[in-house]
Amino acid sequence: MTTIKDIAVLSNVSASTVSRVLNNDKTLAVTEETRKKILNVARELNYKSVRARKSVEKKEVYKIGIFLCQSLEEELSDPYFLSIRQGVENECRERGLSSTELFRLYNFGDVSLDPELDGLVVIGKVSTKVINRFCQEIKNVVYIDYSPDEQKYDSVVIDFDKATTVSLEHLLKLGYEKIGYIGGTVAEHMGNKKIEFEDERKIVFKRVMEQRGLFRDDFVFVGDFTMSEGYRLMKDAINKKEVPEAFFVGSDPMAVGALRALQEMNIRVPEEVALVSFDDVEMAQFASCPLTTVRVHTEEMGRTGVKLLLDRMNGREIPLKITLPTEFIIRSSCGAKLNVFQDN
């Protein structure tokens, strides 16, 4: 590292003279030729003052925004997305980032994004057409729980196909053949409009069961991903002539609602009907019959999204897609007395 003494030797002046010139001391009596010589030597040696070095070394504070497709009511009714957001906020706080700014798609018409945001974390299925409105102002965007364009955006997702297959194979190994499905539809949000499509869990359920020759369309029940809908759909299933001996349920809140419906009809779980669910939110282990479920590391999804965003802001140009593993957690609701399977 170049010092003032180095510059003084090459400029053939004293160190104090060099210091006063570099600090732009107007009271210094020195010829313009000597001043220029000192400045040229300092430039050639790539000298940086203490103040300049501290400015470079000082940690830059980034401002991060969070964009959600869920309303507050939807987020509170499904802890899956709430946990992802908390992961984002916790990682930002621990890294000393500026307070995150929260934007919700449903009231976004009344607000605008801060053009000084350094990065944006998008949680859920928000159309790229919505996000593209802000790309000129916000260069760094990461999606969590959705990967709309791997060539442009960083993303953090899980393997729904693998997790659903593991769940169904577990039920099949336990001897269940009449397996039903309770789940919801998913949607890509485009401002005030939504484009709904089949949830990947339902698609995988149908494929796996068809491969075994066990799929029955009358065993499939689809509504919204809420506790009340899980209750309603299980009631519909119970009112059928034939009730499946096991169900794969798309989320823990839906499974808790389904449990309530079964208990009201005095149908024992898992003795008469077994359940396997998805998410492993906190309520899963405290349900009236603890739920066998797929554990999704939602908080880590949020934290990973922030790490990707920081890495991108620090110069990485190639977008990355990170797929986090899930775990299959076995509890009472499936009727098995086993430990934990790892989805590696």
Automatic annotation (TrEMBL):
GO MF entry, a single one: transcription cis-regulatory region binding
Protein keywords: DNA-binding, Transcription, Transcription regulation
Keyword Ribonucleoprotein: no
Domain HTH lacI-type as annotated: residue spans: 2-58
SUPFAM superfamilies, A to Z: lambda repressor-like DNA-binding domains, Periplasmic binding protein-like I
Protein name: LacI family DNA-binding transcriptional regulator
Organism: Aquibacillus salsiterrae
Lineage: Bacteria, Bacillati, Bacillota, Bacilli, Bacillales
